[in-house]
């Protein structure tokens, strides 16, 4: 006997492999089951590894099913879970789906141990709560990954044996697709955790080094914030200039570490209470190169290091360490340079009062094309005019 | 007409979803095809995203197939690739598999544009090289993911239409499983890259801070190396003591950052050329707490921070900052403490000569149970006796 929805469901199940968001996937599956098999509803109980419990996802069919409160999560001592987890009991029905009517007859007909009887009664009670006619467990190796629950058919007919067999195969596909999505999600979460860890550690260490320079407290954090704002604006203005999520990551790191080389400058110079003499200025100007020396061994930071190395270059070639000119200066450095200049101008030092934002912007516009990259300045000025700085 | 290997291949294809190592997966598949379909050989040409080329994986069957040199990678201008990539040409055979004999007849019978003729000839030539009777392309959306090539059957019979249809479905499953594995692998590689980036950046920044203290050059790197050695040994000795890969990660970070708080101590004290007075010692002793203050905002480092905070506690309770005793001191800190003590003892300072390894070990054994955790010391001494320190 042919099942009319079989082909459709099979091919849908296959394309699920590449859906890697578990929640989306599960919702897709229950919705699809309700539509194609034409049941009143379908539900999936899915194992949560971290909690050792099972979470319910329900698709309401035409008539709907209200999940009783507190039933969205099931502990592993729930009869429904225990029944399919305890292997001896699984064998009661030859590993086949549990059909409500059959289980009820089984209970009436046979002599069964009191303990098993209680378990089956518990199972039937759970099926009643969910208004489920059949339950299909799915395993990966020996682990119960989940249980598919199907309600009555819309046309009132019973499920045939061929349909039950088909659901067993389908449930196993579905469970594998879900397990795959979960593994994928776990990996993604670990990656996110790791990226956060990296950025937060870099922020903490950069801030600690920043704190050595008493007069620039918070400088690194401010320059980082401004740099990222400028980059986002450049991305909006001119798509090919900054076209890459990677660029933002590199800029973030470069801005955080742009002054890292100051750790190699004596505190006496960094914290000097008056203007610096020629010799002291020379030492200070070594900080980009010291920064490069510190970071150079880190291959993955190659792009970010450009920002550290060249953030004191000037558009007209009068900067250091290499006297690069115009577009020779990497964009990542040109951005940090504008942010750095603005923050230095607006910060009060013991030997001079900081400028107001307005005055600093005037000064930045004035030096555009001389000290600073005009394209970056123009993005910066826009941000200022919109009140974003 | 039933195909005898169909069920086996279908269920094998399903379980592939959870094989996430692309190379292993592809080898599994070609081997399986040769065994179950009983062909002389099978091959898969698989798209490499980064290269825009296709890589060949071959399974030799009973009679074997020698891949001609230089054919392991195919550029996208290869006729075999172009034929299945250029949509109009795909339609020539109604998106069905290309059967060598049929394509040959097609070429003889019909009037075809010269360009198409050349392409089909090129395709046939490629199939001859691989001794392939049929080619089955597989797509994800509009992208050609790969091509399955099958050689002659061992029994010499032709492939039936039902078999060809089945291969089309199977190839699509296989391609999706491979794509899934590739995506998984990409994510894993990015995670590895990120972990490396984090550790290398932490090493670089820790070393830079280390360099502030002129007398302890390389101290951080040495303490980190020793700490990890000790932890590995403890893991071998007593499985429940250090039972977690995570522990090693935390220890690695903690050891790298154990002296990070020194960044808050004036250089004048760190680099003093003589013994320190009471006041100066008090400042130096603040470094674990300063380290904690720097790292505390990083939630993910909670476990590692324990190593930073308590690496100057002593087993008899006479240490700082909290005077913890015995097993109150977290293992992560007890390990760093032994490594730190050993490195301090064996390093020459301006005001005292460093001890020899032998003398330092004697001293460490002597203070075991007073200053240092006896369990950690015993692992350390073992390593020394084996010449590993």
Account of the protein in words:
- Two copies of one chain form a homodimer.
- With 389 residues, chain A is an alpha+beta fold.
- The first copy, chain A, folds into two domains: 6-185, Beta-Lactamase; 211-385, Hypothetical protein af1432 (Orthogonal Bundle), CATH 1.10.3210.10.
- Helix content of chain A is 56%, strand content 9%.
- Chain A is built from 16 helices and six strands.
- The first copy, chain A, has a six-stranded antiparallel β-sheet with strand order 3-2-1-6-5-4.
- In chain A, β5 (134-140) and β6 (143-150) form a beta hairpin.
- The radius of gyration of chain A is 33 Å and the shape is elongated.
- At the A-B interface, α7 of A face α7 of B.
Number of domains in the coordinates of chain A?
2
* Uncertain residue segments of chain A: none
Q: Give a count of the beta strands of chain A, DSSP E runs of length 2 or more.
A: 6
How would you characterize the largest beta sheet of chain A? 6 strands, antiparallel
CATH architectural designation of the largest domain in chain A: 2-Layer Sandwich
Specify the CATH class of the largest domain in chain A.
Answer: Alpha Beta
Oligomer status: homodimer
According to CATH, the homologous superfamily of the largest domain in chain A is: GAF domain
**Residue share in helix of chain A:** 55-70%
Our estimate of the beta-strand percent of chain A is 5-15%
CA gyration radius of chain A, whole angstroms: 33 Å
Q: Pairing-aware structural class of the strands and helices of chain A?
A: alpha+beta
- Alpha carbon gap, first and last residue of chain A: 71 Å
Shape label of chain A: elongated
Order of helices and strands of chain A: HHEEEHHEHHEEHHHHHHHHHH
Average residue pLDDT of chain A: 86
Strand neighbour order, sheet with most strands of chain A: 3-2-1-6-5-4
Q: What's the CATH topology label of the largest domain in chain A?
A: Beta-Lactamase
- Biggest interface, which chains? A-B, 47 and 47 residues
- Quickly count the helices of chain A: 16
